[in-house]
Design a protein that fits this description.
Layout lengths: L7 E9 L2 E8 L6 E13 L11 H6 L1 E7 L6 H6 L4 H11 L4 H30 L7 H32 L6 H28 L9 H21 L13 H15 L5 E5 L1 H31 L5 H32 L3 E6 L6 E11 L7 H6 L4 H6 L5 E13 L5 E2 L2 E2 L2 E8 L11 E7 L6 E7 L2 E13 L4 E14 L2 E8 L11 E4 L3
Antiparallel strand pairs: 1-2, 2-11, 3-8, 3-14, 4-11, 5-6, 6-7, 7-8, 9-10, 12-13, 14-15, 15-16, 16-17
Length: about 525
C-alpha cells in the first residue's frame, strides 16, 4: 500500500546571496477544510539595528516574495505516453473528438510542459545521486543506470515526436492567432526543457569512465541536446546558447517561457481590505467617544456660565484639547488591539482555471514585546552555553511572521494519485539586515611559535541569525492537530548569506545537533 504523503512538508535553501527560500507542500487528507499555520520567529542581534521603527511592516512585506501554486502532477515518461490523465493523451483525444475549447487546449499544452519539467528534473537528480562518488558504479547499479538513461532518452524522444505531430495537425485547423502563438511558445519551452535536463545529466556523469557503455550514454544524451538546438535554429528561435556571448537573451527568454507555461498552476491572490474596514469602525468609535466628552463639557459649561463669558470660552477650548487627545489615544489603543487580533493582509486563493476561491490566506507580523516566544521555540535554540545563558540578557530583536492558510479540499483538483496539493514558496530578502554590519574581513595579529615573529592572519566577521519555524496542521473534522518545529541558522556578513545550517527537531532524550544544509555559492 502506498503511504499517504505528509500533510505538510518543508524544504529550505539559499536562493542567492541575498535571498532565503522556504518551500512548503500542503497536502490535505480529503476532509472538507484544513488549516495550515506557518510561524517564523526571526532572532536578530541588536547590533543590526532592526526594530519596528527602522524596519516597519511595509518594508518587511516588501522583502517577502510569495508564490502559491498547485503541485505539479507527478508522471513518469511512460505515463505521459499512455495514461488517460496525461496532458499529451488528452491533446490527442481533443484532436480526434473536437470536444473542448481552444483555452482547454492551451491549458493542456502548458500542463504538459510542467509535467515534463518535473519528470526531467527528477531524472537529473536521480542521475546525480547515482553517479556521485562512484567511478565506475558497481555492475548491477551500472546496468540499472544504463537502462534508466536509455529508457528516459527513448521516452522523451517519443513524447516530442507525438507532441510535434499533434502541433502539425493542429496547424491545419483554424485556431485564433493567440492560441497558435501560445502553442509555439510551449513547443519552444519543451525543447529548452529537454536540452537543459539532458545537458545537466551529462554534466553529472562526468565522473564516469570515458569508455562504453558510459561514453555511449553521454553521446546519446548530447545528440538529443544538439537535435533540440538545431530544431530551434530551424524555426528561427533565438533561444540558443552561445559559447562566446553573454547569453542574455537566452536567459531572458527561458525565464519568460517558464512563467508563461507554469502560470496554469499558480493561484492568484485577491486581496481583501478586511482589517482596514474593522479599523475604520474602531476609529469611528474613538471619534464618537471623544465627541461625547466634548459635547458633555459644552453642555455643562453652557449651564454653568454665560455663553459670552471668558470662562465659557476657556472651558470649550480645554474641552476640545482633551477631546482631541482622547480621540488620538483611543485610536492608538484600538489600533494595537486590531493588530493583535486581525491579520495585516488577507487574500482569497483563486484557481486560475475555474476562477473559484479554494482557500484563504492571512498574514501578520509582530515585533518586540508583542511577540510571545513559545517554550518549544525557545528550547530549540538551547544548543550551547552561549545561547542558553545570553537569551534575555543581550540585546536581541524578535520578529514573528504568521501565515494562516485554509484550503477547501472539495475544490482542489484530483489526479490519479489522489488529491492535488498546494506548493507555497516564500522568499525572504535579507538585504536590510546587512546595512549596519561591520566589514566582513579584518586582520588579526598572530605570533609564530618557532621564531616569535608577529604577522597578520585573516579574520571573518559574520552574524548568526536564527529563524525558528513552527508548522501546525489543524483538521477540524477529524479533531486532529499536528505541530513541528525546525531551526534554520543563516550566517551573514555584509556581502550576504555565507552559509545555512538546518537543525532538525530533536527526538526525546536525544541531544540536538546541527545538520549543515547548503552554503551560498
Amino acid at each position: 500500500m502506498t503511504q499517504a504523503p505528509a500533510p505538510l512538508q518543508s524544504r529550505f535553501e539559499v536562493h542567492d546571496r541575498k535571498q532565503f527560500e522556504i518551500k512548503l507542500e500542503y497536502q490535505p487528507s480529503g476532509v472538507d477544510e484544513t488549516r495550515y499555520v506557518v510561524e517564523a520567529y526571526l532572532f536578530l542581534p541588536g547590533s543590526l539595528n532592526i526594530d519596528a521603527e527602522t524596519y516597519p511592516r511595509a518594508d518587511f512585506y516588501a522583502d517577502i516574495h510569495n508564490y502559491v501554486r498547485f503541485k505539479t502532477p507527478v508522471m513518469a515518461v511512460e505515463e505521459l505516453l499512455t495514461s488517460d490523465a496525461s496532458p499529451l493523451v488528452r491533446l490527442e483525444a481533443w484532436l480526434r473528438t473536437g470536444m473542448g475549447t481552444e483555452g482547454d487546449v492551451v491549458y493542456q499544452a502548458k500542463l504538459l510542459s510542467c509535467v515534463l519539467r518535473g519528470t526531467l528534473r527528477r531524472f537529473a537528480v536521480d542521475v546525480e545521486s547515482r553517479c556521485e562518488g562512484r567511478t565506475p558504479p558497481p555492475a548491477e547499479a551500472g546496468a540499472a543506470l544504463e537502462a534508466d538513461v536509455r529508457a528516459m532518452q527513448a521516452g522523451v524522444t517519443r513524447v516530442l515526436e507525438r507532441f510535434r505531430a499533434w502541433l502539425r495537425a493542429v496547424g491545419e485547423l483554424r485556431l485564433q492567432e493567440r492560441s497558435r502563438a501560445s502553442l509555439r511558445l510551449v513547443d519552444e519551452y519543451v525543447s529548452l526543457l529537454v536540452e537543459g535536463g539532458f545537458r545537466r545529466s551529462v554534466a553529472d556523469m562526468k565522473a564516469l569512465p570515458r569508455e562504453e557503455p558510459w561514453l555511449g550514454l553521454r553521446k546519446g544524451l548530447m545528440e538529443a541536446v544538439l537535435r533540440e538546438e538545431a530544431y530551434r535554429k530551424e524555426h528561427q528561435l533565438r533561444s540558443v546558447l552561445s559559447p562566446t556571448g553573454d547569453n542574455e537573451e537566452y536567459i531572458q527568454r527561458l525565464g519568460f517561457l517558464k512563467k508563461f507555461c507554469m502560470n496554469v498552476l499558480f493561484l492568484s491572490s485577491k486581496r481583501k481590505q478586511k482589517r482596514q474596514g474593522f479599523e475604520e469602525m474602531l476609529f469611528a468609535f474613538a471619534a464618537g467617544v471623544a465627541m461625547t466628552f466634548a459635547t458633555a463639557v459644552a453642555f455643562w459649561a453652557q449651564a454653568r456660565f454665560a455663553q459670552a463669558s471668558l470662562n465659557f470660552f476657556l472651558i470649550l477650548v480645554v474641552g476640545y484639547m482633551v477631546k482631541d487627545r482622547i480621540k488620538e489615544g483611543l485610536r492608538r489603543m484600538l489600533s494595537r488591539v486590531a493588530a493583535t487580533h486581525l491579520a495585516d493582509r488577507t487574500a482569497d486563493l483563486v484557481d486560475p482555471v475555474t476562477g473559484r476561491a479554494i482557500g484563504t490566506c492571512e498574514e501578520r507580523v509582530d515585533y518586540g514585546s508583542a511577540v510571545k516566544v513559545p517554550e518549544s521555540v525557545a528550547a530549540l535554540r538551547h544548543r550551547d552555553d552561549l545561547l542558553t545563558a545570553t537569551q534575555g540578557e543581550l540585546s536581541e530583536t524578535v520578529i514573528r511572521y504568521r501565515k494562516h492558510i485554509d484550503l477547501d479540499a472539495r475544490l482542489l483538483p484530483r489526479t490519479e494519485r489522489g488529491l492535488s496539493g498546494v506548493t507555497d514558496i516564500l522568499r525572504l530578502n535579507v538585504g536590510r539586515f546587512l546595512r549596519d554590519m561591520d566589514e566582513p574581513e579584518l586582520a588579526l595579529e598572530y605570533v609564530d611559535l618557532e621564531d616569535l615573529s608577529v604577522g597578520l592572519i585573516r579574520g571573518a566577521k559574520r552574524y548568526p541569525v536564527d529563524v525558528v519555524f513552527r508548522f501546525t496542521v489543524e483538521e477540524e473534522e477529524r479533531d486532529r492537530r499536528q505541530e513541528t518545529t525546525q531551526l534554520v541558522r543563516l550566517v551573514l556578513d555584509r556581502n550576504g548569506i555565507q552559509r545555512m545550517q538546518h537543525f532538525l527537531e530533536p527526538s526525546p532524550g536525544t541531544p540536538p545537533g546541527p545538520v549543515p544544509w547548503r552554503s551560498a555559492a
